[in-house]
Amino acid sequence: MTSSTHPPRSSTVRAGLAGVAAAAVAVGLAEVVAAFTGPQSSPLLAVGAVVVDTVPGPVKDLAIAVFGTHDKTALITGTVVLLAGYAAAVGILALRSWRLALGGVALFTAIGVVAALTRHDAGPAAALPSVVAGVVAAAALRYLVDRATFADPVDDGRRRFLIAAGVAAAAGVAGGVVGRYLTSRRAVTAARKAVVLPQPAQAVPTVPPGAQVEGATAYVTSTRDFYRIDTSLYPPQIDPSTWQLRIHGMVRNPLTITWEQLLQRPMISRYVTLACVSNEVGGDLIGNALWLGTPVQALLDEAQPLPEADQVVSRSADGWTCGTPTSVLRDGRDALLAVGMNGRPLTVPHGFPVRMVVPGLYGYVSACKWITEIELTRFADFDAYWVPRGWAARGPIKTQSRIDTPRDGARRGPGTVTVAGVAWAQHRGITKVELQVDDQPWAPATLAPAVSADTWVQWSYQWQAPPGDHTLRVRATDTDGQTQTSTPAPPAPDGATGWHTVQLTID
Asked: What are phi and psi of 111, to 5 degrees?
């Protein structure tokens, strides 16, 4: 393996396959080990999490824009593809220099170890899956590369290599499946099913008749369809029996609350529409649900924040942080520590067992999932997760509207066409929605009733559509008298702006 001559092309191909097969069996076994040392210690998840934390903001924005709620699947898939390419290169390198190839394996191991150890609350055991993967990768690579360069050129030699590589790859896949299975067995599915939600202290708000407009998205978003944007590749699995919330920092009365104590507090149910700051104009990273929780204001009042504590920093079990203005959480709005969503316990992807819900703020400054800590501090002293990455420290939701029907590029027959959609300005409310056809004057749409100013409102317009190509635009005005601007702006740093526009043909 130290020869300076170029190996035959067939040996090079087999060596590349050997590298990929060795990586597969190593990563598969690492998944099994990670089932016992914690999901975040998995090399794939740990490295992926580092990528999420360090990738430039524009790249992350592009990923969300392209893949939406599937951005994490795309990241893991991309990581696997890059790993396969790297492993193939190491396998080919092994034909020329085993020492260099071993160095490539060591680099692979070191990256996994460092990534795992830098995860929130990681202990020394978090390095074990990557170390095991490195040792197995080196052994498997040596064995397979030796088979790949087997001197006998007849088919039996190639067949033995392909069988060995296939067995290694299959073992890797099996290890991955077993690892995921073992991890799922340690999940909190059973604990969630055992949760009995308390009854709210007040009557549950009712959705008024007519709130749902034909052609618009569902007024109440199902939990399954509710958008999910966060930084966690594997949502934290928190047993409610071990959950605690610590309230500390610039307070006169620090508190620690257990799950049982939380459920004994007065609970209220409220419909609240949440929106992601990454939502493009006309996008679907927004949803409306019925939340059950206890008011945050009462908890803060008990903790007695100091007058100069203008920021509430919420921390997730995975270390993610968001900063919310203290004044917003104490101004009387229905900011909740939520335990229920649409009549059932929160799902794990949506923050089980407890998350924050705050009307009127984008999620990146308020909607902390898997919350375990609240610290009273100052904006001048601490920047939450997204602020150093270029996003604004405060994120009040901007007045927006969207056309749900007809869709962009649709074709309809002439006559009456129902145009419908949603508009939102949470905690302020919508007073007017207007539609513009081509360059004609703006015309008022019909607003449907809504539960409260904390939810979106649906609207409709009956358009007498003549034949031809047409452009439809929509804009909304909130209760402060502010009409959404026509000036287009990207989501960063504090939310997208502009009028949602669709083009269609009437023929």
From this structure: -60, -45
Secondary element (H or E) of residue 288: strand 286-295
371-377 and 311-316: which strand pairing? antiparallel
3-state helix, strand, coil in the chain (%, to 5): 40, 25, 40
Return the number of other C-beta atoms located less than 10 Å from residue 96's C-beta: 18
Q: Which fold has domain 400-506?
A: Immunoglobulin-like (2.60.40)
Round to whole Å and give the CA distance between 191 and 242. Answer: 11
Q: Using omega within 30 degrees of 0 as the cis cutoff, is the peptide bond preceding 353 cis?
A: yes
pLDDT class for 414, splitting at 50, 70, 90?
A: very high
Residue 191's contacts (CB-CB under 8 Å, 6 or more residues apart) are: 239, 240, 241
Distance (Å, rounded) from C-alpha 210 to C-alpha 448? 6
Average pLDDT over residues 15-28: 92
| Average pLDDT score over residue span 94-100 | 91
- The domain locations on the chain are 9-185, 400-506
Q: Based on C-alpha coordinates, what's the Rg of the chain?
A: 27
Using CA atoms, how far apart are residues 148 and 142, in angstroms rounded to an integer? 10
Residues 24 and 22: their CA atoms lie apart, in Å, by 5
- Residues β-bridged to residue 437: 472
Chain mean pLDDT for the chain: 92
Contact 48, 182 (CB under 8 A): no
Question: 319 Cβ partners below 8 Å, 6+ apart?
Answer: 119, 120, 121
**Amino acid letter for position 302:** E
Report the distance separating Cα 24 and Cα 43, nearest Å: 12
Q: Is 418 in a helix, a strand, or coil?
A: strand
E-assigned strand segments in 364-429: 371-377, 400-405, 411-412, 415-424
Whole-Å CA distances, 463 to 104, 176, 178, 417, 421: 65, 55, 57, 5, 14
| Sequence-distant (≥ 6) Cβ neighbours of residue 186 within 8 angstroms | 35, 237
Distances (CA, A) of 40 to 120, 141, 188, 369, 417: 9, 26, 16, 17, 51
User: Is 90 exceeded by the pLDDT of residue 250?
Assistant: yes
Please report, as a single letter, which amino acid is at residue 238: I
* Whole-angstrom distance, CA of residue 106 vs CA of residue 123: 21
Global pTM value: 0.84
pLDDT score of 59 more than 90: no
333 and 396 in contact (C-beta within 8 Å)? no
Picking from 349, 66, 74, 352, the residue whose alpha carbon sits closest to that of residue 225 is 349
Question: What's the angle, vertex CA 307, arms to CA 306 and CA 312, rounded to 5?
Answer: 70
